[in-house]
Structure to design on (555 residues):
């Protein structure tokens, strides 16, 4: 490919334009895992744009999902669990669940991952033995996901199985360490559900810490988790995962996570947080200033040997 | 409890260890009698050799020194569901007399639901690992007759119910609390008291348990941790007391 073609096919865009790809009522898969590699800047932008009635999915949810639920942007969850690790629980999600403000399709995490896998493979469902004999299965079948989860028998061995339907997200958002403008996205470290969530999606948005040339991507193609032609938008954004960690780039921000957990304990506190860190900042860079600016963010930079 | 957990781990096993006490128990086993344990992390990490404790499975401190990075599907699907994981060492909010357990939600005093983050891969591990070790704080409302939410099946209603349903894993082998160590009867799969921790009376044990216990006279005492085990945990594994004492 010539350089010209690469330029013509550039998917580089702004955070605001990328967030506009997600529409109200869309099914959005988020790629974070507890306190790691959440696309939190993307969640903040969706909230700023007033997105509503989303269905959100992930195997283990973290701050990007908790924030969206707290801001009232979500009507349904498809998930196996979530936390902010030792800093605390996903309080906005738990509160919405307790108050019946969201419909929670609550699975084993592998079952969520299998739903993505079926979506990624273009097949209608996957069989699984997880959830047999549990209340997870009872509630899904009888209440939250009767059209998605059924029990069945293996036609070959007669084993009793749970069948989970393919999940095809309208949009999957991935926070990554490196990407080129064609969308070739590279992740360092473990990738939890990201491979299947991205490959299942209709559209994929990549938020990248580093924007690199395609030549750099070609030096280590084994790191590319998704071929560029499957990606629809690339946003180049430093500290886009803050306050969660981005392996080999920066550590999670313990002080800010503690602040968030303290605020998210009540609805009023969360509103204060949303005003100060989501609604009032003009853009991502003003947010970064508010959380401490370069002086503070520099202290989070990863040690090149440790990766954190 | 950390030492009792450590002693349940054998050298060379592939082990999932939940955050906190289970992780410390496995780390202690690695530093004492089981140096070749392979630790699995559902984020997609195999065989890490951490040099400092982090805040959770998602903390890169818990990925340090790994020999394999992959995905949730690799670790929970193609190792655990595949049937090659020896032990799942899991914390629980509630456990019943057949080792079924809850990691989802409990009831508040006013009858409302108090939701926790959710079990994540706990059900997958309990369904497929060759054995599971459950760890729970020993209180009447935690060792219960009836669970608020059966997140992860143990032996269901006992006997061969688990095998009949077709759950591939071996089910729970131990329940560890801050008062006692339990196993399960080979046939009925009902919980069975194996040892009581030093300083805990029979009466205190029954009073703190939400189902009837069969306490044999002369029930063995759990061996206390050795000086070396205490030293390793306090000085090397958790010097900042992130997890020790939090239980």
């Amino acid at each position: 490919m010539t350089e010209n073609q690469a330029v013509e096919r550039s998917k580089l865009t702004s955070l605001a334009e990328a967030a506009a790809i997600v529409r109200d009522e869309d099914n959005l898969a988020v790629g974070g895992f507890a306190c790691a590699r959440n696309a939190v800047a993307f969640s903040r932008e969706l909230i700023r744009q007033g997105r509503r009635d989303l269905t959100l999915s992930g195997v283990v949810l973290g701050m990007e999902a908790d924030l969206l639920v707290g801001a009232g942007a979500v009507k349904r969850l498809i998930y196996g669990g979530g936390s902010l690790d030792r800093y605390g629980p996903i309080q906005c999600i738990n509160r919405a669940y307790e108050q019946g403000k969201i419909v929670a399709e609550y699975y084993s995490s592998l079952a969520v991952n299998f739903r993505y896998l079926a979506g990624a493979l273009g097949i209608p469902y996957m069989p699984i033995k997880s959830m047999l004999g549990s209340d997870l299965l009872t509630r899904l079948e009888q209440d939250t996901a009767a059209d998605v989860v059924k029990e069945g028998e293996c036609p070959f061995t007669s084993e009793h199985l749970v069948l989970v339907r393919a999940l095809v997200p309208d949009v999957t958002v991935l926070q990554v360490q490196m990407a080129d403008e064609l969308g070739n996205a590279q992740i360092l470290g473990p990738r939890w559900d990201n491979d299947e969530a991205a490959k299942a999606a209709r559209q994929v948005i990549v938020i990248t810490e580093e924007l690199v040339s395609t030549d750099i991507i070609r030096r280590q193609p084994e790191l590319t988790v998704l071929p560029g032609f499957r990606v629809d938008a690339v946003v180049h954004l430093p500290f886009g995962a803050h306050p969660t960690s981005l392996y080999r780039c920066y550590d999670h921000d313990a002080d800010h996570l503690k602040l968030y957990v303290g605020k998210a304990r009540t609805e009023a506190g969360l509103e204060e947080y949303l005003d100060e860190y989501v609604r009032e900042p003009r853009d991502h860079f003003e947010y970064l200033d508010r959380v401490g600016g370069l002086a503070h963010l520099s202290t989070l930079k990863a040690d090149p040997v440790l990766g954190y | 409890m950390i030492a009792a957990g450590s002693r349940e781990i054998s050298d060379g096993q592939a082990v999932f260890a939940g955050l906190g006490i289970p992780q410390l128990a496995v780390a202690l086993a690695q530093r004492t009698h089981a140096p070749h344990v392979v630790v699995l992390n559902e984020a997609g990490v195999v065989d890490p050799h951490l040099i400092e404790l982090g805040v959770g499975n998602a903390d890169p401190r818990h990925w340090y020194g790994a020999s394999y990075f992959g995905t949730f599907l690799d670790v929970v699907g193609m190792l655990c569901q595949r049937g090659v994981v020896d032990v799942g060492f899991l914390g629980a909010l509630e456990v019943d007399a057949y080792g079924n357990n809850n990691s989802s939600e409990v009831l508040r005093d006013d009858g409302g639901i108090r939701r926790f983050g959710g079990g994540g891969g706990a059900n997958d591990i309990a369904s497929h690992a060759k054995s599971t070790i459950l760890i729970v704080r020993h209180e009447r409302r935690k060792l219960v007759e009836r669970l608020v939410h059966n997140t992860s099946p143990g032996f269901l209603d006992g006997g061969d119910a688990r095998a009949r349903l077709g759950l591939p894993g071996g089910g729970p082998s131990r329940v560890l609390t801050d008062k006692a160590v339990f196993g399960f009867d080979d046939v009925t799969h009902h919980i069975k008291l194996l040892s009581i921790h030093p300083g805990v009376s029979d009466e205190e044990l029954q009073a703190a348990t939400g189902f009837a216990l069969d306490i044999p006279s002369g029930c063995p005492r759990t061996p206390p941790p050795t000086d070396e085990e205490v030293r390793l945990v306090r000085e090397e594994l958790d010097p900042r007391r992130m997890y020790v004492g939090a239980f």
